[in-house]
Amino acid sequence: MGMIGNAVAASAFSALLDRSLVQMAEASADARTYDRQTIHMVSDVWDNNTFPLFRALAARTSWGRDRRARAALKWMAALGVERRTWMVEQSAIAGYDVESLLHAPVESDRHHRDYRA
Fold first, then answer.
1. What is the pLDDT of residues 79-102, one digit of tens each?
2. Cβ distance 39 to 28 under 8 Å?
3. Which residues contact 79 (CB under 8 A, 6 or more apart)?
């Protein structure tokens, strides 16, 4: 179950950032096999989630860090099924089980543009 059972969601949140850096390094290690799609997807994850990460880590107490990290992880996962799946997979690779912290997955993405109306 990783460290989530010990109430350290902030560590799991930080581990997601670490995994992102590893993924981007692997995707860009060789110019001949540069994986633009992976770089774009992973950097997009952190486009609006870097501030919540640092806000969580800047809390004065461990309880406050954990509370903020849990809220940020839930918000981050609510941005789509693909994002949530990535979070669960990458945190598992890092030794954490964030799925227990997240809301149940939604069948379809809630965020979309209606270009017809």
1. 889 999 999 999 999 999 999 888
2. yes
3. 111
